[in-house]
Amino acid sequence: MRLRDVNAVITGASSGIGRAVTSHFRREGANLLLTGRRAEVPDGSAGDVYLPGDLNDEDFVSTLADRAADHLGEVGVVVLCHGHQASSPLQDMSYDDAREVLHGNLLSAFLVMKHLMPLAPESGASMVCVSSRLGMVGMPNQTMYSAAKGGLIALARGAAVEWADRGIRVNVVAPGLTMTPVIEAAFQRRPDPAAYRRSREDSIPIGRLATPEEIADAVLFLACPESSYITGAVLPVDGGYTAF
C-alpha cells in the first residue's frame, strides 16, 4: 500500500474524478477526510470522515482545516478535485457568472491551500490540483473556464516554488474530456448524443474519452513517493489532445 497511514484530504470527493481518486487512495491505505457539495455521504465512504460544504466560503474552509487537525492531525496529501464549469460565449457571460467560475476553480483552491497546508508535517507533503486541458489551450465558449483553470496551474506552480524549502510538492493533473456524470449529462442534452460523443472522440488522438480511474491513476502517482523529485509540474492526461 503506497499511502499506508498517510493522512489525506480530498475535495470534490462525492462524484466523478474525485470519487475515483477517493477509491484509489482508500485502496492504497490512506486515512481520508473528504469534502464535497453533496449533503449525502458518498457510496463506499462509511469509514471516512465526510464534511459537505462550499469551498468558496472561507469560514467553511477554516472549519474543514479544524476538522482535519482534530481527526487527522498532520495532513500529508491534499488533492483538489472540485471545480465549477459554465459554458458561454465571453460577451454573453454575466459578471456574476464569471466570478462564480473564478471562485469555483481558482479562489477556492487558494483558500484550501491557505488553511490546510499549515497542517503539513515537517517531513513534507504533496498537493495535487486537478485542472483541465482547457487550462492549457483555448476553446470557444470556455474562455472563463480556461482562465480559471489556467490560473489554477499558475497558482500551483507558484506554491511549488514558495513551499519547496518546506518539502511541500505541488503538482497539477490536466485531464482531457473524461466520462464523468457531468459530461454524460451534457452529452444527453444534445439532439444526437451518440453523434456528439463521436465528434468529441474524433478530436482526441487516442480516439476516446478518459475514464475517471485513469485520471485518478495520475493523481495517485503525483501524491506518492515515486514522484518525490517532481514539483511544479503539469501532467496532461488527455489522450494527446494538447500535443497537437
Instruction: Supply the CATH architecture of the largest domain.
Output: 3-Layer(aba) Sandwich
The CA-CA distance between the termini, in Å, is 37 Å
Return the string of H and E elements: EHEEHEHEHEHHHE
Globally, the shape reads globular
The radius of gyration is: 17 Å
Give the total of domains. 2
Give the strand content: 15-25%
Task: Please tally the β strands and state the result.
Answer: 7
Q: Outline the low-pLDDT stretches.
A: none
What do we call the CATH homologous superfamily of the largest domain?
NAD(P)-binding Rossmann-like Domain
Compute the average pLDDT.
Answer: 95
For the biggest β-sheet, the strand order reads 3-2-1-4-5-6-7
Helices and strands: which structural class? alpha/beta
Q: Predict the CATH topology of the largest domain.
A: Rossmann fold
Helix content: 40-55%
Essential attributes:
Rossmann fold; 7-stranded parallel beta sheet
Explain this structure.
40% of the residues lie in helices and 15% in strands. It is α/β, with parallel strands linked by helices and 244 residues long. The chain folds into two domains: 7-175 and 211-237, 3-Layer(aba) Sandwich (Rossmann fold); 178-209, no CATH class. It has a seven-stranded parallel beta sheet, with helices on both faces. It is globular. The model has no long low-confidence stretch (mean pLDDT 95).
